[in-house]
Amino acid sequence: MEDFLASCTSGGCGAKIAAGDLTDYLKALPTTKDPNLLVGFNTGDDAAVYQTAPDQALVNTVDFFSPMVEDPYVFGTIAATNALSDIYAMGGKPLLALNITCFPERLPKSALSDILAGGAAKIQEAGAILAGGHSIYDHEPKYGLAVTGQVDPRHLIRNDTPKTGDALILTKALGVGIILAADRAKVGDAEATEIAIASMQQLNKYAAANFGQYQVHACTDVTGFGLLAHGLEMAGDDHTLVLDTGEVPILPDALDFAKEYLTTAGGERNREQIGDRVDLDAISPALQELLFDPQTSGGLLISVAAEDAADLLAAIHVTDPVARIVAWSLIGKLNP
Fold first, then answer.
1. I need a surface site. Which of 34, 81, 157, 301 has the fewest CB within 10 A?
2. In the chain, which ranges are continuous DSSP H helix?
3. pLDDT tens digits for range 171-193
4. Tell me: the pLDDT tens digits for 278-297?
5. 51 beta partners
6. For residue 79, which of 299, 301, 296 has the smallest C-alpha distance?
């Protein structure tokens, strides 16, 4: 269905508003002083968390975007997987989901049915309930979910609470944005594209299911801002993240495409937003592009006590075999 993708000016998490711009827009919003709001928008975390009882809190997120693949059903699975990921990144369990749907009148209605069916399949796989949604006509198709989950506040995981000495695990390979850009430009490799699509369809449910057995101090899912920007959010003002780039998992052909200057607008926005906060002097230009590359439905970046890292990685490998330890020791700020 070529019109499905051709009608979209951007797709996936690469369409996200740049992090710096978004921060400026949010400055006008009032801050909420409710002791039960454990996580709001002020920390840039993956979801909002509201405590309802001493041992229970609701985790809420919303995520949607336009297509990045031709197959409407596959698009639905990817968009739903991406939205559900925010709940897992907070250490939560998804309970119910609401569809968010924008659809052009000119496209076949069967395409919309396929999108919704793909999303429903992933919601079911997550063990959550599809409880409704909202739909409108639009010039471009868009789909995603508003998801409500639950978490014990005592086991809530934030994106900015790592501890000095932690190791960092990345559960999915990088390069989704560049591989999809190559495919859309008709210069991609079919096998590489299929591997990237399979990665985007993999729920982070399975990796997150291991958290309770280990000392996980922080977590975020790596999506539109790329590994470096999400890593900077995790490091915050108190830590320095030193990546072992030789261990960063990369999707097949992604580095070759980057060497051929197949980059993305989202990756360039990420580079501009990060500025001089990252030392890239020893990193090749192609690998830099992968570190900035916007990931749609990317993996989890997990900050775990170093003594638990190898065991947690082994547990994650059962379902996510490409996961790697990408940093062995989170250190204090180099320039306090």
1. 34
2. 2-6, 19-26, 72-89, 109-125, 176-184, 190-201, 205-208, 226-235, 254-259, 265-274, 285-292, 306-317
3. 999 999 999 999 988 998 999 99
4. 889 889 999 999 999 999 99
5. 57
6. 296
Residue among 226, 208, 222, 207 at smallest CA distance from 289:
226
Cα–Cα dist 194/191, whole Å:
5
Residue 76, amino acid: G
In angstroms, the CA 239 to CA 327 distance is 13
HSE at residue 186, side-chain half, CA atoms within 13 A, is 2
For residues 105 and 247, give the distance between their C-alpha atoms in angstroms, rounded to a whole number.
46
The whole-angstrom separation of Cα 101 and Cα 144 is: 7
Q: Using CA atoms, how far apart are residues 149 and 160, in angstroms rounded to an integer?
A: 20
Which sequence positions are flagged as catalytic? 13
Chain centroid offset of residue 17 CA: 14
Comparison of pLDDT for 15 and 129, the residue scoring more? 129
Residue 11 pLDDT exceeds 70:
no
pTM: 0.92
pLDDT digits over 119-147, tens only?
A: 999 999 999 999 999 999 999 999 999 99
Residue type, 257: F
User: Is beta strand 37-39 parallel, antiparallel or unpaired with respect to 48-53?
Assistant: antiparallel
